[in-house]
UniProtKB/TrEMBL annotation:
Gene3D superfamilies with a match to the protein in the record: NAD(P)-binding Rossmann-like Domain (3.40.50.720)
Record Pfam families: CoA_binding_2
Protein name per its UniProtKB record: CoA-binding domain-containing protein
Domain CoA-binding: 11-102
Organism: Demequina mangrovi
Upper lineage: Bacteria, Bacillati, Actinomycetota, Actinomycetes, Micrococcales
SUPFAM superfamilies on file: NAD(P)-binding Rossmann-fold domains
InterPro entries the UniProt entry points to: CoA-bd, NAD(P)-bd_dom_sf
């Protein structure tokens, strides 16, 4: 199993990343923060929300399969009970890397979804936040990363 730092670097080496659970009301959800930061740092972030046609003025798609040209990786920011469906859809589309977002609470992590993804050859980061690593990181997220490694909300390996 790769260490979290190496898995995060590999994930963030992709430039076309879908973010599920992005909300129509930007201040209401952590997915929006991930979506915004990815865009700010030069990524082609794609919003996924089956209940929205646009998010923050950008096109939004109802599913991964609806994204023209596809995506390379997926940040899951929905409720945990939706993670397995997203992991299976990603796998069916040939997307090999997913990141289940998790901050101080339970986040989007679903153990069954993580296990299913790994059993099907996917790299699954089951915790933490892409904003804690590499080119998307900031001081606050780096501090949270160290703290959440102690609590287990950021895995040490994936």
């Amino acid at each position: 199993m790769p260490a979290i730092k190496e898995a995060a670097e590999a994930f963030l080496s992709h430039k076309r990343i879908a973010v599920t659970g992005v909300s129509r009301t930007p201040g209401s959800h952590g997915s929006n923060a991930v979506y915004q930061r990815l865009r700010e740092r030069g990524y082609e972030a794609i919003a996924i929300n089956p209940n929205a046609e646009t998010v923050e003025g950008d096109p939004c798609y109802p599913s991964l399969g609806a994204v023209p040209g596809g995506v390379e990786a997926v940040v899951i920011g929905t409720r945990p009970d939706r993670a397995l469906e997203t992991v299976k859809e990603a796998s069916s589309l040939g997307i090999g890397e997913v990141w289940m977002h998790r901050g101080p609470g339970g986040g989007s992590v679903d153990d069954a979804a993580a296990a299913w993804g790994r059993e099907h050859g996917m790299t699954v980061i089951d915790g933490g936040c892409p904003l804690m690593f590499g080119p998307t990181a900031d001081g606050g997220h780096k501090f949270m990363c160290a703290l959440f490694k102690l609590s287990g909300n950021v895995p040490r390996s994936v």
